[in-house]
Amino acid sequence: MSKKLFNISILFLILIFSSCSKNKSSNNNINDIKNTNSSNNIQNQDNVTFDMKYVYKALRVDKTNFNNALTSYYQDGNYSNIINRNKEFLNKKIVGDNDIKKYAIDYISNTYHNPYSDDVSGGDLYNEDLSHYYASEYNYVEQNLALKKARDLLLKINNKDADTYLALYLSYMASDSLYNFYEIQEYLKEWKKLNSTNINMIIGLVNEGNNINEIYSNNMKLINYIIEAPTDLGVEQLIADAYQNGFLKYISKSTGYLDIYNENNYNLSSIIYEGAARQSYFAIIKDVVNINIMNNYIRTYVKAKLSTDKMKLPIYYENFYYIDNTYPGEKYDEFSDLYFLEFNKNTFVYSIYENKLKEVYYFNPSFIGNTKYASYQVEEIYNFRLGDDSKLEKAKVSNIKISSLKNIASDSKFILNGQFNSEEYAKYLNEILSFPIYSPEFFLCDINNDGKDEIMLRGSYEHLGGRGGKASYTLLLKDNLELNLESTIGKSINGSSKQGLNNFQRVYSENGKNKILLVNPIVNTAKDIFSENDVVNVDEFKYKNYTFKPKLLWKGNIVNGVPADVLKTDASFNMHKAKSDSDIAIVSDKTLRVADKLISDIYYKNREKLNEEEKEKLLENRRAEIKTIQDKHGDVIEIEKEMLNILGINN
User: Fold this and answer.
1) pTM
2) How far is Cα 259 from Cα 262, in angstroms, rounded to an integer?
3) CA-closest candidate to residue 642, choices 624, 628, 627, 621
């Protein structure tokens, strides 16, 4: 079996990376050189819509290591079934509308519910050999191609029904969420015209702990939102609306094959939380590139400036493309939770801090100094029946001095010779609560409303581990100062998840009755506890509702709701029409695409200065350069050498 899989991987590498066809036809043809706009920021329509997620990358790592990594994925039970499913559908010959609907919809539905998914390990980023990640990217492309095949087949059938349009929607959601937002919108509009409300294809299998009604409702909210979305919808408003309506998690990612820098170049990327403080950042598997060509490219087209210390070679390229985690605050809040969101042909990163939307970020080398796209103004609405809990009437309590504890507590092991042993008490609390309380405040309160005061305790502990915070407690004690963990009210108060790190409690009075409110603001939940004569009522609820008003921070131009003038790593020619081995190699490799663009723009820039005779001579020279590149028959390294020579760049 292992040998068979190895041979399969070799076969696919030969098909993709070799130049066995030696195709002489070229879309960079020497007879078809035409004047184009020399600005890299303005592409022709074909190049704008060419999507690199459907292109296998050229192989620049050790082929044996890559082969072995690819084979290991085939043999891994976590991936093998999915990889085989993708291959089977890619190779399957399907004819006739009925079979197309049957097999294409089945493939899309299965992939939507169980897609190929891999993530980046923070520790692995520093390994010299990243072949297994490049192999994983290969698997992502294969799934994307299979989804595209299914989508293209469905688009060709004559009588499209509601299921067809729903499957077309899911085919995009399975690979890149709302990246093709307005294509998705059109499919769902057609779905709605057919009066279909059946979204079982989306629901799939529901785990025991999930609420099927909530899943159905939130998915319908998402679908209706997309259908009704205006043409000028911005990502900042989309995120706010999605958060409010409960479908943000359906359109967000924490890992995937993504175009993080919005340059039409995809990499395996993941959100990573590292260290005791769980600092967040996103990790990207780097492309193997020629640094000298990339530096030339950036200097030529990027207007943004870096600080002097970051302009130095060879780290110039890295400082433009890779997030500096030493000072992440320059770009994003490292103590927030981060998420990827693909929308309208762009990729954004947004942050949530303490259960509230915080900021949206946008990355591209053209805008290296302006990554904050939007922020949110938060408006809070209390769900507590009495409104703002900070204004509650405080319960009547009697504070107990530490020196008086011996007169109130009975048979306490923490009082010896009339003295309270605070160290032993802190150790006792730490064993139960996981946090010590070194300065407890004891008080009496009739929290059970039975005419008898109970001993209670307030206290906090400043926690410096993890992301830090304050652990706060309001606890019910027994007469011996131990925690009351036996009675109903004792369990309700002391055993609550609303006690501890980043929680707070309020003992208050309503209509002459004492009550306690316990709040966990991080997960936005609260408990209102009322006890009378040992009958305990606990009301648990969502603590607050939030509304988020987005504020656009972006200083550049916004076109159709997304930033304009981004730097793309597209080749100079129509990549849709690449057929020769060398043109395919250029399209499949970031360095070669960039170098091709540089060469082409230099040619047209020089051409503008010449008379007709000089133009003809320059054209002959350009034709010779193109022929030399075509004669390399797709050999990436040899093509790169020729391009370096043409550009006059030392390797």
Assistant:
1) 0.83
2) 5
3) 628
d(CA 507, CA 300): 65
Dihedral over Cα of 319, 324, 330, 336: its sign: positive
- For residue 18, give the 3-state DSSP assignment: coil
Give residue-wise pLDDT tens across range 188-233: 999 999 987 777 778 766 565 667 788 888 899 999 999 999 999 9
Asked if 229 and 247 touch (Cβ cutoff 8 Å), the reply is no
E strand segments, 108-216: none
Point out which residues pair with 509 in neighbouring strands. 514
The per-residue DSSP string of 466-486 comes to TT-EEEEEEEEB-TTSSB--S
Measured distance CA(256)–CA(596) in Å, rounded: 28
Residue 328's pLDDT band, with cuts at 50, 70 and 90, is low
Residue 369's contacts (CB-CB under 8 Å, 6 or more residues apart) are 304, 305
> Mean pLDDT score of the chain, rounded to an integer?
88
- Which pLDDT tens digit goes with each residue over 532-548? 988 999 999 999 988 99
Q: Say if CB 593 and CB 47 are below 8 A apart.
A: no
Q: Decide which of 201 and 97 is more confident.
A: 97
Return all residues near 534 (Cβ < 8 A) that are at least 6 apart.
448, 450, 487, 488, 489
Residue 49 burial class via C-beta count within 10 angstroms: exposed 0-12, middle 13-18, buried 19 and up: exposed
Residue 111: both structure tokens together? 């992939």
Tokens coding 485: 């963990």
